[in-house]
């Protein structure tokens, strides 16, 4: 008896939609999409077509050409309504869809790799300053267009680029604009405002301290403010760390609760063991993992760290999970939308927040524990902190180096 699940096109017995299986439907949908293009564009985009044909989720791909904004932009490229260049994608009004398509085109080699984050940041500054009052632009313009980009370039040269690099740069611009608007609301000018205005603002918005300090330092040094100076940085913030009982409860939950998303469990455990931020964890690759079958070590600095159970088992599950775009991707957490990229660090932070877990508190407890039991050199290598910051954490933790855990190989 002939199975009713046999595809009429390829003869494979599989789940069907109508008379065809989803791989065949995906092939037909992609053929229809590319058929509308010019011969030159079809030839140039053939690598992308082959990648889409072998997509591990054919059901999704069968619907993609008719539902995705990225497919609409691809259709415009195929019929030569827009150029097949980075510049054309930069100018496209559907920013997110254009960005996702760009990742796919770069991943298959159709477009050359480019530092798109910097170009997008510069474009964001122009949009951010647009339609703001002229008297605020006189101050915000030089700060956002010159000082913040120069500071960001310096930080990239020193520490490399992370998911949080431009997030922090944008936040600095936003807080500077918010502070100037607050002064304007109270009838004050930055040039003549007193230090009391800064203290009053921080009393109402304490979380804006660090970004505001960058702006105040620039305003003081550039002469934009005569009576305002940067507020001294707090020596250390141990109160942000979870109490030891809360920290242990979270670590126990990440280790045992199988209802929590796999990547969230891994992120929580690594952050709670090493004190590393989500930006570092999101960018981990298979080259960072040393697995000999019996033990697993993680290379974050010069010396690998042996991972305690159940982290090795969880990481092996993550590595064995299907990859949506590039099956040969070396990212530990490959993005399902951005081809060739890893999951953005903000997704990990959001996952933890949904569990009511503060990643700052988790990391703070880990850093206090490590600072109390490790010398400065190994502490810096494990956590990525500078020697000065590590020394401050050791003072806060009242470190005596009495115990040095055998966690390094």
Set out the fold topology.
Elements: E1 16-17, E2 20-21, H1 22-35, H2 39-44, H3 46-53, H4 58-67, H5 69-78, H6 86-91, H7 95-107, H8 116-129, H9 134-159, H10 165-185, H11 195-204, H12 209-222, H13 244-256, H14 262-274, H15 278-282, E3 289-291, E4 296-298, E5 305-306, H16 311-320, H17 345-354, H18 359-371, H19 376-383, H20 387-396
Helix pairs in contact: 1-4, 4-5, 5-7, 8-9, 8-10, 9-10, 10-12, 13-14, 14-16, 14-18, 19-20
How would you portray this structure in words?
The protein has helices spanning 22-35, 39-44, 46-53, 58-67, 69-78, 86-91, 95-107, 116-129, 134-159, 165-185, 195-204, 209-222, 244-256, 262-274, 278-282, 311-320, 345-354, 359-371, 376-383, 387-396, and strands spanning 16-17, 20-21, 289-291, 296-298, 305-306. With 409 residues, it is an all-alpha fold. The strands form 2 sheets. The chain has a 3-stranded antiparallel sheet, with no helix packed on it. A two-stranded antiparallel ribbon has the order 1-2. Strand 4 and strand 5 form a beta hairpin. Helix 5 (69-78) packs across helix 7 (95-107), helix 8 runs antiparallel to helix 9 (134-159) and helix 9 runs antiparallel to helix 10. The radius of gyration is 26 Å and the shape is globular. It starts with 15 loop residues before the first strand and ends in a 13-residue tail after the last helix. 29% of the residues are buried.
């Amino acid at each position: 008896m002939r199975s009713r699940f046999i595809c009429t096109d390829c003869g494979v017995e599989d789940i069907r939609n109508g008379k065809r299986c989803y791989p065949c439907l995906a092939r037909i949908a992609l053929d229809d999409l590319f058929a509308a293009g010019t011969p030159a564009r079809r030839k140039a985009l053939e690598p992308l077509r082959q990648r889409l044909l072998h997509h591990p989720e054919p059901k999704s791909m069968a619907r993609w050409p008719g539902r995705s904004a990225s497919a609409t932009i691809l259709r415009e490229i195929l019929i030569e309504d827009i150029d097949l260049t980075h510049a054309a994608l930069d100018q496209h009004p559907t920013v997110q869809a254009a960005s996702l398509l760009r990742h796919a085109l770069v991943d298959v080699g159709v477009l050359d790799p480019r530092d798109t984050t910097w170009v997008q940041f510069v474009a964001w500054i122009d949009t951010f300053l647009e339609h703001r009052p002229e008297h605020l632009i006189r101050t915000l313009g030089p700060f956002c267009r010159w000082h913040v980009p120069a500071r960001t370039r310096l930080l990239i040269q020193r520490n490399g680029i992370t998911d949080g690099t431009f997030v922090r740069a944008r936040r600095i611009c936003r807080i500077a604009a918010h502070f100037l608007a607050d002064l304007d609301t109270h009838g004050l000018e930055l040039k003549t405002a007193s230090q009391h205005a800064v203290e009053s603002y921080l009393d109402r918005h304490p979380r804006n301290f660090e970004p505001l300090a960058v702006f105040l330092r620039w305003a003081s040094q550039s002469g934009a403010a005569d009576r305002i100076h940067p507020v001294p940085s707090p020596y250390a913030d141990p109160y942000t760390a979870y109490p030891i009982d809360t920290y242990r409860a979270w670590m126990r939950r990440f280790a045992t609760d199988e209802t929590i998303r796999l990547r969230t469990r891994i992120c929580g455990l690594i952050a709670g063991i090493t004190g590393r931020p989500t930006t570092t964890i999101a960018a981990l690759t298979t080259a960072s993992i040393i697995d000999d079958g019996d033990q697993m070590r993680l290379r974050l600095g010069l010396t690998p760290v042996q991972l305690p159970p159940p982290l090795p088992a969880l990481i092996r599950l993550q590595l064995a999970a299907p990859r949506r775009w590039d099956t040969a991707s070396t990212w530990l957490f490959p993005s399902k939308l951005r081809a060739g990229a890893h999951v953005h660090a903000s997704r990990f932070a959001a996952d933890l927040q949904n569990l009511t877990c503060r990643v700052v508190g988790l990391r703070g407890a880990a850093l206090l524990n490590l600072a109390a039991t490790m010398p400065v050199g190994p502490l810096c290598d494990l956590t990525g902190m500078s020697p000065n910051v590590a020394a401050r954490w050791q003072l806060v933790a009242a470190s005596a180096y009495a115990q040095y855990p055998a966690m390094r190989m």
